[in-house]
Amino acid sequence: MKTILFNRRIVSVILFMFISTAVLVKAQTLALKSSDITINGETNVKHDFTIKATQVNGKITVADNLPKTLTVEIPVSSLISGERLMDKKTHEAFDEPKNPTIKFNMTEVNSIQVNGENIAVTVTGDLTLRGATKKVTLKADGKVTSPGVYTFQGVLPIKMSDYGMKAPTAMMGTLKTKDQVTVNYNVTFEGNPIDFNSIAYTQNK
């Protein structure tokens, strides 16, 4: 009797290891390899400005041919406009010493539409700026540029006041940036080729 129970335990352990291994094999990671992310806005004197994120970290985990997690982090200190005063004001607006990182963490996949090499995706996630976190929705146009290489681009409007940020000013307050800015992003992720579903995917509510 003890031998039978012992054998059953061995079989259970083997099955558990097999199932766990299968799950791990299905899960894949796409790492962020390149990015072009800019913050674009205007001032009260119709002077456009562009701030570039010179350092971006991120990854996507995929299981069952669907994204499960997406995280992106940008050091505030890496936001550079090319104008020293603008950079200083930008970092102050974020209170960079206390809030050194901009973070996005996907919480939901809303839809995916695959058409040949093109991938249209909409996701919802938490965006953290200056220590405040808000839900945002990202709509991106993606493309498979080569096996295992995926690019996504899109636009996200943001109001600084929604995150408790004061729009930067200069010249004794006579020059003011407008509250709303636009984030333009073009990012490339690389990893093992993913066979994304070839039909529209909509998460059940």
Number of strands: 13
**End-to-end distance, in Å?**
49 Å
The backbone outline, from C-alpha atoms, is elongated
Number of domains: 1
Which descriptors apply to this entry?
single chain; 205 residues; alpha+beta; Lipocalin; 8-stranded antiparallel beta barrel; two-stranded antiparallel ribbon; 17% helix; disordered N terminus
Topology:
Blueprint: H1 2-26, E1 28-41, E2 49-53, E3 57-63, E4 66-75, E5 79-80, H2 84-93, E6 101-115, E7 118-129, E8 132-146, E9 149-159, E10 169-170, E11 175-176, E12 180-190, E13 201-202
Antiparallel strand pairs: 1-2, 1-3, 1-12, 2-5, 3-4, 4-6, 6-7, 6-13, 7-8, 8-9, 9-12, 10-11
Structure description:
This protein is of the alpha+beta class and 205 residues long. It has a single domain, classed as Beta Barrel (Lipocalin), CATH 2.40.128.110. Helices cover 17% and strands 53% of the residues. It is built from two helices and 13 strands; from the N terminus they run αβββββαββββββββ. Strands 1-3-4-6-7-8-9-12 form an eight-stranded antiparallel beta barrel. It has a two-stranded antiparallel sheet with strand order 10-11. A hairpin with a 2-residue loop joins strand 3 and strand 4.
Summarize the structure.
By secondary structure, the protein is an alpha+beta fold. It has helices at residues 2-26, 84-93, and strands at 28-41, 49-53, 57-63, 66-75, 79-80, 101-115, 118-129, 132-146, 149-159, 169-170, 175-176, 180-190, 201-202.
